Amino acid sequence: MHETHLLDNIFKYLNQEEKLSSKKIKKVCVSLSELGGISEEHFRQHFKDKAAGTKWEGLEWECKKIPYGPESEITRLDFE
To answer: How far is CA 24 from the centre of its chain?
Structure first.
């Protein structure tokens, strides 16, 4: 499943960013391309399922639809 691979990479990235900053991530901002194959609702549900029981459960997400560009892109991380 494409979303599982995508989320594995996102979680790996989030772990790296927390280690670099020595701070906990509280919010992730993502852009999703309208030309990409994933809707915001679909993305959020896959994230919720994959994050269940992990330190990422309950992480705040902000999703913005863009007309074109990368299928998904993390545009900002907010730390505590």
So the answer is: 15
For residue 37, what is the domain's CATH number? 3.30.2320.50
Average pLDDT on 41-48 reads: 89
Mean pLDDT computed over every residue of the chain: 91
**Enclosing domain of residue 74:** 2-79
Q: What's the gap between Cα 28 and its chain centre?
A: 6
Q: How many domains does the chain have?
A: 1
CA distances from 16 to 9, 19, 21, 57, 65 (A): 11, 5, 9, 17, 25
Mean pLDDT of 50-65: 93
The model carries a pTM of 0.85
